[in-house]
Structure formats: structure tokens, C-alpha cells
Design a protein that fits this description.
alpha/beta; 8 helices; 49% helix; disordered N terminus
């Protein structure tokens, strides 16, 4: 007849069983991916591109290459101005968003919108996100001097002023390294092609990763 296990042996067996359960159980599951939402216009919507080549998809891939577990959701509508973004920010940005990138302003530029109103719109968007406890970051656009030095100055000043007013980080120019390079643009000379989007995503990803921490 075998002896009954001692109290110490019993404890060891229980601990060993718990250890096996921990190693094989849900504790080692992949961490939940953080949600990044891009509230934007046609650049975010992927105008003229397949979904896999659009900025949200390429930014997600670029973040994964940096070891950042995140899903990037595109909330872009072609033609949207900052005023349009303000009108839909409450229902376009998911409640579980860890970081919202506000990527608007290009259509305000094309339509010659008043920079003062544009600034007010961006500040209101950022304030709405803050009220919902959603972290936000702002991506800027840049007006060419050819459009008029005074207007370009006022337009370009909007983004740092809005970011400072709401104390959010600013990525100075979303199209850095792409705008003006015809090899990276579609035939309209405005929207990035797949190669251009990859450059934007690669440059933007470290900024997003930093602000997800």
C-alpha cells in the first residue's frame, strides 16, 4: 500500500498544477491591440487606392514593424473640411479609441477657407475628444507660398496654435517627403500613390507609437 502524500508534497502538486495552468491559459494570450482612429479626408480615406494601400492600413503595418500592437481605423471622408470633421467627430471616432489622429485641413486650403475659422474648428474637435477622454494628436498641412504669402502664413500657423491651445502633440506636416514629388503622387498631383503612402506611414509611425505609450 502506498503512503498518502505529505502536506508538503500536496502543496508542490498544487503549485505545479497552477504553474501549468498559467503557462497554458489565457494569461499568455496576445495583449489587446490599441485602437488608433484617423479622422481625416481623402488622404485618410485612401482616394484612388486599394484599401490595402490606403494610409490606415499602411500605418498599421508600419506600427507592427515597430513592435506596436495596434489597429488603425480610417474615419476619412473625401472632400471633408475641418468643419465637416467637427460635425461628425462624435460618431466617427469610436469610444474605444486609444489615440485619435486629427488629419484635416487640406480641403480648407483648396477651398480657401478662413484660417481663423479653421483654427476654431480644430480646437473644437480636439476639445470634443478630450471631453470623451480620448487622447488626440494633430497632423498639420502646409500651404505653398504661391497661394499667397499672407494666406500661407496664416494657414500654416493654425496647426501649432490649435495643438498648443488644447495641449496635444503635433505632427507638423502629414505629407512630408511626398508633396511635390511626382513619382510619389497620383495623376492629380495631390494625392499620394501607394509608394507615397508607404513613406507617409513610415514617417508617421514613430510619432504614433510614442503617443500611444
Amino acid at each position: 500500500m502506498s503512503r498518502a502524500p505529505t502536506t508538503r508534497q500536496s502543496r508542490r502538486a498544487v503549485v505545479a498544477g497552477l504553474g501549468a495552468a498559467v503557462l497554458s491559459g489565457p494569461a499568455l494570450a496576445e495583449p489587446a491591440q490599441k485602437i488608433v482612429t484617423m479622422l481625416g479626408d481623402s488622404i485618410t480615406a485612401g482616394y484612388g487606392l486599394a484599401q490595402k494601400d490606403a494610409l490606415p492600413a499602411q500605418l498599421e503595418l508600419a506600427l507592427h514593424r515597430l513592435g506596436v500592437s495596434a489597429q488603425v481605423h480610417g474615419a476619412g471622408v473625401s472632400g471633408d473640411t475641418t468643419g465637416d470633421g467637427l460635425a461628425r467627430v462624435d460618431f466617427s471616432v469610436r469610444a474605444d479609441t486609444a489615440l485619435c489622429l486629427v488629419a484635416l485641413g487640406g480641403n480648407d486650403l483648396l477651398q480657401g477657407q478662413d484660417p481663423a475659422q479653421m483654427k476654431a474648428n480644430l480646437i473644437a474637435i480636439l476639445a470634443r475628444l478630450k471631453a470623451r477622454h480620448i487622447r488626440a494628436a494633430l497632423t498639420g498641412m502646409r500651404a505653398p507660398v504661391q497661394i499667397g504669402a499672407s494666406f500661407a502664413h496664416d494657414f500654416n500657423a493654425v496647426f501649432p496654435a490649435a495643438a498648443e491651445a488644447e495641449h496635444v502633440p503635433l505632427y507638423p506636416f502629414l505629407l512630408e517627403g511626398v508633396t511635390g514629388n511626382q513619382a510619389l503622387l497620383q495623376g492629380d498631383h495631390i494625392h499620394p500613390n501607394p509608394a507615397g503612402v508607404k513613406i507617409i506611414a513610415a514617417r508617421l509611425a514613430p510619432f504614433v507609437a510614442k503617443n500611444l505609450k
